[in-house]
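During the no-cost extension, the postdoctoral fellow (Dr. R.K.) reprocessed legacy sequence entries with the updated structure-token encoder. One reprocessed record is reproduced below for audit purposes.
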Amino acid sequence: MKVFIILPAYNEEPALPQLLANLPHKLAGLAYEAVVIDDGSRDRTAAIAAQYPVTLLRHDKNQGLGAALKTGLAYLVGRGRPDDLVLTLDADDTHDPALLFALAEKMTAHDIVIASRYCAGGAQTGVGAVRALLSRLMSGLLQVVFPVKGASDYSSGFRAYRLAVIERGFQVYGDKLIESRGFSCMPELLVKLAGLGARVTEVPLVMHYERKRSSSKFRPLALIGDYLSLFLILLQARIKGQ
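Re-encoded structure tokens follow.
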């Protein structure tokens, strides 16, 4: 089994060196390929990534997390076997790659495994009250309107997917697999793939947001706008029967 690690990155110069340097130790014994998507960074993100044994994909201009994630996932189509794993990580070094082993254990009976802050044993520290509240509210609302069996943390960027599920998503949705620009791309991808029959479960994640070295991209009003757009996107997909 091979693991593809997708790292969307925008102005992550402070955090990227430690994250990339630690990958061989954190994932010892696994065959993996790390793919960094530099989303039009204005700092040395791309130059730093080029110093490590990773695949570097670049956007000339910043297009948002959704576009960066889609670029990384599209790169994988046809590059591995159906049961290979795709791991998505935040590039700010707030996610511990070693949790991949716990995620991989669950993949024997599932297609998507979420590292969840909200399941039993999960937690988050160092997160501002407004961000934490909005995240819980949005996940709760999505659970009601677009329920996904086995999922409580819709917005976690730390997940493992079976490659076959990603490829199936592109077969059905094409370029519209991810339409959201911002953080709402994570629940969009989850709901769309679950709608295609992907089996979902979670493992607990203790997220240490205080470890973040780069500046936060969180903007409350922008996040609310992203989620309003997401509901329209998912409702349209439901009407079309996708």
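The first strand starts at residue 2 and ends at 9. Strands lie at 2-9, 31-39, 55-59, 85-88, 112-116, 123-125, 159-162, 200-204, 206-208. The remaining legacy entries will be reprocessed before the final report is submitted.
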